């Protein structure tokens, strides 16, 4: 191939190829700097991008699971608040029952204590029925008056695995029985050793169970947060750009681009030197 040709400028072709490679590398670097990602889409690195999308999906799943468990924590906190008030009221009920078990009370005194017992029992019933959150309750197994009861299965991780909270029917298992008016000391004494003991034990069991549920959900939420931090860290290592490195590379490529442009300009001027041969 003739070196002195106006049809084929080898120098310009080489300079152009070099400049194109520099421009391509510069475009990649500028994209990394503008997005902050080494792998911003599948065109950058298909395999890495696919893994990154999977990790992002896991993080989204964990975020949703924590949001759902946060709502269930509200139900549990309301339930525990109601049960705590019931437990405190049961202490007052016991005190009244002890007085009613005294056979020396006059009819008037007994009537007053029976009325006090009924009032305290109503308080217990109200505490239990009011322990609702967003229309849900763990202290009933049925649905009534706009309140939905029954077991609650909440998701706990990104795979949708559930954790079940078992509801109790408080109206029958946690509420003390009524006392027959004028039942006398023996009825109160019987309630103290029978119904009261049974219901107090059930209340304590519910407090322990729901307290354990609450602790579990708090631990699971905390674990999910730590897991998301780990996933974020791994995701960053996989797709984030090293901006310090890219900045240095940008400076280098910009200089190469300028030099390549000058080299191409010089190469394009070479054929003009052939004109001097014809003067």
Automatic annotation (TrEMBL):
Keyword set includes Signal: no
MF terms (GO), sorted A to Z: structural molecule activity
Start and end residues of each Flagellin N-terminal domain: 6-140
Domain Flagellin C-terminal: 200-278
GO-annotated cellular components: bacterial-type flagellum; extracellular region
InterPro entries: Flagellin, Flagellin_C, Flagellin_N
Compartments (UniProt record): Secreted; Bacterial flagellum
Pfam families: Flagellin_C, Flagellin_N
UniProt keyword annotations, A-Z: Bacterial flagellum, Cell projection, Cilium, Flagellum, Secreted
Main localization (coarse): secreted
Reported function: Flagellin is the subunit protein which polymerizes to form the filaments of bacterial flagella.
Homology family: Belongs to the bacterial flagellin family.
Protein name: Flagellin
Protein source organism: Muricoccus nepalensis
Lineage of origin: Bacteria, Pseudomonadati, Pseudomonadota, Alphaproteobacteria, Acetobacterales
């Amino acid at each position: 191939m003739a070196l002195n040709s106006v049809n084929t400028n080898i120098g310009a072709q080489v300079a152009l190829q070099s400049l194109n490679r520099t421009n391509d590398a510069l475009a990649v670097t500028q994209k990394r700097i503008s997005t902050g990602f080494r792998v911003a889409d599948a065109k950058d690195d298909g395999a890495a991008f696919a893994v990154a999308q999977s990790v992002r999906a896991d993080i989204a799943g964990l975020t949703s699971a924590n949001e759902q468990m946060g709502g269930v924590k509200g139900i549990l906190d309301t339930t525990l608040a109601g049960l705590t008030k019931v437990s405190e009221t049961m202490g007052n009920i016991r005190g009244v029952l002890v007085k009613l078990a005294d056979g020396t009370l006059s009819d008037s005194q007994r009537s007053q204590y029976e009325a006090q017992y009924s009032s305290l029992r109503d308080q217990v019933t109200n505490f239990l029925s009011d322990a609702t959150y967003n229309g849900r309750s763990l202290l009933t197994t049925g649905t009534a008056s706009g309140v939905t009861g029954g077991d609650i299965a909440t998701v706990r991780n990104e795979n949708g695995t559930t954790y079940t909270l078992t509801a109790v029917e408080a109206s029958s298992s946690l509420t003390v029985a009524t006392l027959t008016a004028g039942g006398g000391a023996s009825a109160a004494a019987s309630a103290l050793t029978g119904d009261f003991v049974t219901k107090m034990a059930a209340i304590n069991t519910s407090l322990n169970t729901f307290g354990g549920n609450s602790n579990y959900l708090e631990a699971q939420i905390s674990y999910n947060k730590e897991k998301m931090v780990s996933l974020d860290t791994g995701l960053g290592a996989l797709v984030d750009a090293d901006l310090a490195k890219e900045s240095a590379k940008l400076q280098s490529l910009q200089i190469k681009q300028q030099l390549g442009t000058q080299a191409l300009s010089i190469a394009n001027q070479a054929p003009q030197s052939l004109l001097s041969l014809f003067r």
